[in-house]
Amino acid sequence: MFLIDMLKINEIYHSIQGESTSAGRPCVFIRLTYCNLRCTYCDTEYAFYEGKDMSVQQVIDEIEKYKCKLVEITGGEPLVQVEECLELMKRLNDLDYEVMIETGGSLSIKEIDSRVKIIMDLKCPSSGMEKKNLYENVQYLKSTDELKFVIGNREDYEWSVEKLNKYHLQGKCEILFSVVFGELEPVDLVNWILEDKLDVRFQLPMHKYIWHTETKGV
Ligand code: SF4
Question: Is the CB of 35 under 6 A from ligand 1?
């Protein structure tokens, strides 16, 4: 029998939030299995297929062990398991958790509860996944959500600025500009942002500096 309550979970762990405006805060991460994208720079390929079945209640029981009220649902792409993911987020919100979801931006965010902070990517050209962006998602972003561009080169940067203007994104929500680790020097991106006087937040993937880049569960 197919149970709507069951999630395929890759890992659950307690770490420091490495990105977003919550960077530096302790957080429990729930990494869901599966992803419908294949970004060139992906560092979580192990989440494409590996995982174990857990009920929503079992996931919550595991989270509660950490005594940490900030929770991020990530992947892979968590919205591949959309019904179960929505149920998990609702239950966590009802338990007064501060819930964030990180999504690649190719699947609809329309049904996500307004209590959840959405961290959504728009995939830049060098990801190889630019054509998968679901631009209608932009209209569902709240002022408290965050839209992330992971930039690997100058072409990605110019593409991102063009999207900021086309969709009037600056001021709509927090805009995050990040580098593809090892591909673009952070100082180059910072200089471009300053030269163009962009109102965006530069960020570094903090967890990659704290731990080895290949370390899982951080
Ligand atoms: S969306 Fe994330 S998990 Fe999926 S391929 Fe891209 S980087 Fe990897």
Answer: yes
**Looking at ligand 1, which residue's alpha carbon is closest to its atom 7?**
42
186 CA → ligand 1 middle, Å: 21
- Kindly list the distances between the CA atom of residue 143 and the CA atoms of 45, 109, 188, in Å, as whole numbers in the listed order: 31, 14, 28
Closest CA to 78 of 47, 55, 39: 47
* pTM of the predicted protein model: 0.94
Helices 154-166 and 186-195 pack at an angle, to 10 degrees, of 40
pLDDT at 72: 98
Cβ–ligand 1 distance for 39 under 6 Å, the answer yes
CB 141 within 8 A of CB 114: no
Model pLDDT for residues 98-142, shown as the tens digit of each residue: 999 999 999 999 999 999 999 999 999 999 999 999 999 999 999
Burial 168-207 (b: 16+ CB within 10 A, else e): ebeebbbbbbbbbbeebeeeebeebbeeeebebbebebeb
* Backbone angles phi and psi of 164, in degrees to 5: -55, -45
The residue whose CA has the least distance to atom 8 of ligand 1 is 42
Instruction: Specify whether the backbone of 202 is left (phi greater than 0), alpha (psi in -120 to 50) or beta.
Output: beta
C-alpha dihedral (126, 140, 111, 119), degrees to nearest 10: 50
